[in-house]
Amino acid sequence: MSDKKVVVISGAGISAESGLSTFRDSGGLWEGYNIEEVASPQGWQENPKKVLEFYNLRRKQAADAQPNAAHKALADLENHFEVVVVTQNVDDLHERAGSNNVVHLHGELRKARSTKDESLILDIGAEPIKLGDLAADGAQLRPHVVWFGEMVPMIEVAAKEVVEADILIVVGTSLVVYPAAGLIGYAKANISKYIIDPAEPQLFDLNEWVHYKENAGTGVRKLAEKLKKEHS
Ligand code: APR
């Protein structure tokens, strides 16, 4: 077991090979939807039924999807390193692959919470949320996801993990959405930094980063083998 700490920042691209859509690629999730309508507090005020239907569909798709080689390679890395996965994904494919330390920055599809008392959170698995489904405080349930314009309560926990990283891996995220995109700025100087993405990063300078310009399944497996060899 190495004494190095590996921190992974993942996004929708890591679940693409499991059949789940990314957001900003062509054919991405936001192309068919108006973000304001389905992922903002205003959208919820105006048409909660539409918002619930959008997340009910995504919850079903995520429950039907299976973890892929990339999720599994990251879970296996825990046999060799301390690993923390900070994910922007609301699916649970990292956990189902076997990762034990997952920080969900943008919430989790398999949870619902009260629209009144935010601490009333329920595990609903793959079940839909309907209008009229109430939390213990009598208020309507909503998806336990972070919408545009809302706070990201887990960002401080995530930043603290990145500060402690000896090896930082960014996989399958365009890193254009803040505050998640700002996390890489917390890394200590001179640590090893890897990005796995078939596309060129848009917003940050690749200087200091090793880019595996590949799909997550192939890239994460290759990188995991390299890290295991270098640190065994
Ligand atoms: N393997 C690895 N990366 C891939 C793959 C793949 N098979 N397919 C696509 N990608 C890459 C794309 O090139 C892109 O850089 O994954 C990235 C996906 O970027 P986005 O669609 O912007 O997804 P993400 O970064 O997770 O979005 C962040 O935006 O709307 C919000 O809340 C939503 O959590 C989401 C946040």
From TrEMBL:
Please tell me whether the keyword Metal-binding is annotated for this protein: no
Pfam families listed in its UniProt record: SIR2
Location, primary (coarse class)? cytoplasm
Q: Would you say which domain of life the source belongs to?
A: Bacteria
Function recorded in the entry: NAD-dependent lysine deacetylase and desuccinylase that specifically removes acetyl and succinyl groups on target proteins. Modulates the activities of several proteins which are inactive in their acylated form.
Question: Family assignment?
Answer: Belongs to the sirtuin family. Class III subfamily.
Under what name is this protein listed?
A: NAD-dependent protein deacylase
Q: Which organism is it from?
A: Gracilimonas halophila
